[in-house]
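REQUEST ID: PR-0412
SUBMITTED BY: lab tech R.K.
PRIORITY: routine
TASK: structure prediction, single protein chain
INPUT:
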Amino acid sequence: MLFDLIDYSILRLLWWALLGVLLIGFAIMDGFDLGVATLLPFVARNDTERRIAINSIGPVWDGNQVWLVLGAGAIFAAWPPIYATAFSGFYIAMFLVLAALILRPVGFDFRNKLPSPRWRRNWDYALFIGGAVPSLVFGVAVGNVLLGVPFTIDADQRIFYEGSGLFELLNPFGLLAGIVSLTMLAAHGGSYLALKSDGPVRERARKATMLLAPVSAAFFILGGLWIASGISGYAITSPVDPSGPSNPLLKTVTTGVGLWTSVYVKYPAAAIAPLLGIAGLFGAALLAKLRHEGLAFIASAAGIAGVILTAGVSLFPFIMPSSLAPNASLTVWDSSSSHRTLFVMAVCALIFVPIVLGYTSFIFHVLRGKLTAQHIEKGNKSLY
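STATUS: complete
OUTPUT:
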C-alpha cells in the first residue's frame, strides 16, 4: 500500500512544510484584506473613497479567509498538542481576534443599509478594528512563541498552561513582533488597494506602502538582532528519532542565547528566508514609488513569505517551545498525530488545496481591473 511506502518522518516533515504554506497563504491572501481595513481611515476621506476601498476587498475577503480555516484545521488535526497549548495559552488573545473578525462580515453587510454618515462611520471603525486587531495579535503570538510559552506536561502527557493571561503576552518583544505584523500587512493592503483603485485613493495607498513597508523591514531587522543577541533559543541535545512516538518527554533540550540563529551558521542557505523578507518589503516600497503596483504587490507577498519562513526556519524542529519545562517543548518529531492520520490528511490536502487555488485564481481573474468613483456612483446594488 502507498501508506506503507511513505515514512512517518517524511509525513511529519511534509505537514510542517504544509502548515507553513497555509500560514503564508493566509498572510498573503487574507493579509491584504486586513491591511486595507487597517488603512481605511487613512486612505479614504469621504464616503465614495471609503466605498472604493471597501469594495476592493468586499467580494473576496470571505474566500480568502478559507486559508485561516485550513491553517487552524491543519493544526488541530496534524498537531493536536500544539492546538491545545495555543488555544489554552493564547485564549484571551484568540478571543480578541475572533471578536474582531466577527466585525468584518457585520461591517460589510450593515454599513450600506442606511445613508446616515454617523451610521456608516461607526461601521468603518468596526472594519478598521477587524483589520488592525488580528494583524497585531497574530504577530504578538509569534513573538511569544519565539520567547517560549509557559506550559508543562505531566507524566500522562496532560498539558498545563501556567501563564497569567493577555498582559503577559504584551511584553516588549511580543509587541515588536506585533508591530512587524501590523505594518507588514498594512503595507500589503496598501499595495493591493493601489492596484485596485484610482485617483486619490490610489495615491494615498501607494504612499502608505512606501512608508509602512520599510518600517516593517526595519523592525524585522531589529527583531532579528534582538533574537541573536538577547533571547534564549532552544536546541535538542538528545538523540532524535524522526519516526518515534509522539511523546515530547522523551528528549532533552538546552537553551541559550543565539540558538535560534545558529541554523544560519550551520546552513548558510537558510539565510535566503530573512533576505527574502527584507528584500521583498524594501522592494515593495521602491516599486510603489515607481508606480508599478502589480510588481509592488508581488514583492510585498514575497516579503511576507520571507518573514514567515524566517520564523519557521529559526524555530525548526520546535513548533511550541516551553519556557517552564524546555524538555516538554513540542517539536515536529514528537507532537504530531498518528502515521495514518497524517497520510489521510495528506491525501485530502492533495485534493482540496488545488481546488482552493483554482477557484481563487478564477475569482481574481473575473474581478480584475480597477474600481473608480464612477463605478461607485452608478449605484450598483451589488456594491457595498
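NOTES: The chain has one domain: 2-377.
REVIEWED BY: pending
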